[in-house]
């Protein structure tokens, strides 16, 4: 099995695309006006507009209602990313070294989804992520 993508549903498609393009420095593909996706080596972040909700009847899906998941991006230097993003994003947690050896900061996207940028910081964390 292969994790193919994580999809966010939103009524603010363009705002979310703009946010994730700012954070990642990558450009989303837009195969449809109501759908966008960022394809990376590790998987795809897809964003569906609220016009896609009728495609999933009976599933209970709603837009902008996530409070239990974190979208994570590994970066070369989280402190440099913090400086680059400065006042352009909502920072929930400044860069912090975590007990498992990553240095991480938490952002919120325009819908309030939590976005973690992290760098393997300790020798153990660097070894754990080597080759991934």
Furnish the topology, listing elements before pairings.
Elements: E1 5-10, H1 13-24, E2 29-32, E3 35-40, E4 43-49, E5 70-74, H2 78-85, E6 90-97, E7 102-108, E8 114-120, H3 123-129
Parallel strand pairs: 1-4, 5-8
Antiparallel strand pairs: 2-3, 3-4, 6-7, 7-8
Report on the structure:
- It is built from three helices and eight strands.
- The protein is α/β, with parallel strands linked by helices and 132 residues long.
- It has two domains: 61 residues, Signal recognition particle alu RNA binding heterodimer, srp9/1; 67 residues, 2,3-Dihydroxybiphenyl 1,2-Dioxygenase, domain 1, CATH 3.10.180.
- The relative contact order is 0.18.
- The model has no long low-confidence stretch (mean pLDDT 95).
Strand order of the largest sheet: 1-4-3-2
Structural class based on helices, strands and sheet pairing? alpha/beta
Tell me the count of domains: 2
Q: Could you tell me the number of beta strands? A: 8
- Described by the principal axes of the CA atoms, the overall outline is globular
CATH class of the largest domain: Alpha Beta
Q: Quickly count the helices.
A: 3
% residues in beta strands: 35-45%
Helix percent band: 10-25%
Describe the biggest sheet? 4 strands, mixed
Classified in CATH, the superfamily of the largest domain is 2,3-Dihydroxybiphenyl 1,2-Dioxygenase, domain 1
């Amino acid at each position: 099995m292969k994790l193919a993508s994580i999809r966010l549903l939103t009524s603010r498609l363009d705002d979310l695309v703009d946010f994730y393009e700012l954070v990642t420095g990558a450009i989303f593909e837009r195969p449809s006006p109501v759908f966008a996706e960022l394809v990376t080596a590790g998987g795809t972040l897809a964003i569906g507009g609220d016009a896609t909700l009728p495609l999933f009847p009976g599933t209970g899906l709603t837009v902008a209602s996530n409070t239990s998941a974190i979208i994570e991006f590994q970066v070369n230097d989280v402190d440099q990313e913090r400086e680059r993003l400065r006042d352009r994003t909502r920072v929930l947690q400044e860069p912090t070294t975590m007990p498992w050896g990553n240095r991480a900061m938490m952002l919120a996207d325009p819908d309030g989804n939590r976005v973690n940028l992290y760098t393997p910081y300790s020798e153990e964390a660097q070894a754990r992520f080597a080759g991934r």
